[in-house]
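INFO worker-7 received task bundle
INFO bundle size: 2
INFO processing item 0
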Amino acid sequence: MKDTEVLEDATEKQMTVIKQMYRKLLVCLLEEAGIKDKHDLAKKQTIAAQNTLNDYIKNLDQPIFPQLEDGPEDWRSVTLAELGITGKAAIILAENDLGTLGYIADWQKEHSSFYELPGIGEATAEKLAEKLDAYWQAHPQAGAGAGEAESETLD
């Protein structure tokens, strides 16, 4: 066998291996695209369901949560949607029984950051803190009723 025949044989085997690896890569890419599509669809469906629920509750003839007219504790019933918190962060907060500003304020008395919640990263924790800060700045009268909760939210 000549050197060129050995080289051609080795090159052919290498090309066969490369083609097999490339086919595997293509299969993985197609699977990944399918998973991403499913994730994107699930995210859209989650947001749509959250919006439907928010709209339904907003349009009820009577509130489902008792509220005082201009009472000092009105801030406690402010929803995540009213705070501008939506998507995955809203789902995680709701799953942890933190669906209103009142529950969040109570939780913050014992916790230093949203980062402590499973599924909340540092960037999301910062964004949540910013949303709360924006609410307290826009509603200083609510902050007066919040007492300790406001100071902890702003830290």
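INFO item 0 finished
INFO processing item 1
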Amino acid sequence: MIETHVKMKTMILLFGVSERRIFQMVEEGLVVTGPRKGTYALKESVKRYINFLKTGGDNEDVKKAQDAAKLKLTNEQARKLERENDIEEKKVIPASDVVDLLQSVSKEAARIFDNIPIQIKRRVPSLKSKDIEWLKLTIAKARNKFADMESS
């Protein structure tokens, strides 16, 4: 008995095309997806593909699906160009650049925070050790807050 829903490997073997082409054929409406992820409706897909080959691609449904796929691709390309232009015109900043900058600033701030107790001890030698320890503890709490923000 012939299976009604098959996996990608079977489609590749039957149609003699690449996995990428199968995905394109789904977008074009030539291949029908099955009820479960990664499966395809064999009978309907073969019917549509044979009809496509017979008509030389003149099938109205196939043309509509192809037009929709082309429109989707064109829209995605336009969005990509728009994003690139926005970045070039400095209207937006890539998230990776922002993350890099924040990490750099965070490291510099941590270095400065670490030196505060030492600098205060030098400037105010009369300050008691417990006050310096309190300052170190307060700075550690602030650093931990920043660390929590970085990890979330």
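INFO item 1 finished
INFO post-check item 1: The two ends are 53 Å apart (CA to CA).
INFO post-check item 1: Strands lie at 5-7, 39-41.
INFO worker-7 idle
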